[in-house]
Amino acid sequence: MSRIGKKPVIISDKVKVTQNNSRIDVTGPKGTMSLDVVNGINVEIKGNEITVAREDDSKRNRALHGLFRSLIHNMVTGVSEGFTKKLELVGIGYRAELKGKNLVMMLGFSHPTVFCPPADINIEVPNPNSVLVNGTSKELVGLVAAKIRSFRVPEPYKGKGIKYENETVRRKAGKTAAK
Predict the structure, then answer these.
(1) Which whole number is the average pLDDT over 18-23?
(2) Could you give the CA distance from residue 153 to residue 149 in angstroms, rounded to a whole number?
(3) Fewest 10 Å CB contacts: which of 12, 37, 126, 156?
(4) Domains of the chain
(5) 32: nearest Cα among 74, 71, 75, 83
């Protein structure tokens, strides 16, 4: 049996979970999310716990068991606490600022890079060298952070670029003078 799939999802007091046939709706202080559960996976809500079980031990159901438990857990966490990714801009002259909802970054190109985030994502710039991506969907927060990072991936010689907060950039030795 799946180790992740058999763990129950604990529902906090702030979150309300409802089930309509194969659809699960999760409502909390940060918003509402819903998920359609496929055939072969059973979801049961008892008190303040959600348990996920599979109908049989087919390869497909074994693969989906832990997946749906994780998706439900991420929905419960997202509507109650939310998810955050922090990006750092490393390099001389690299900076970011918000203009309305748009993120405007100077990344060493001849022009500023403008990023318009999706409606469910909130972007903050606490200082010119860091960007915070907040949202209720873990998947969408990760996608937006990866998209912003893709504008200038850290290079291995000087480490310049946009990197995640705890990311370590493997450095290469530069050219050496031949004697």
Answers:
(1) 91
(2) 6
(3) 126
(4) 9-80 (3.90.930.12), 83-164 (3.90.930.12)
(5) 75
Rounded to an integer, the average pLDDT of 152-163 is 92
DSSP labels, 52-73? EEESS--HHHHHHHHHHHHHHH
pLDDT at 177: 55
What pLDDT does residue 2 have?
A: 66
What percentage of the chain reaches a pLDDT higher than 90? 83
Percent helix, strand, coil in the chain, to 5, is: 20, 40, 40
Rounded to whole angstroms, the Cα distance separating 52 from 40 reads: 11
| DSSP-based three-state secondary structure for 3 | coil
> How does residue 140 score in pLDDT terms, banded at 50, 70 and 90?
very high
Range list of H helices, the chain: 59-80, 138-150
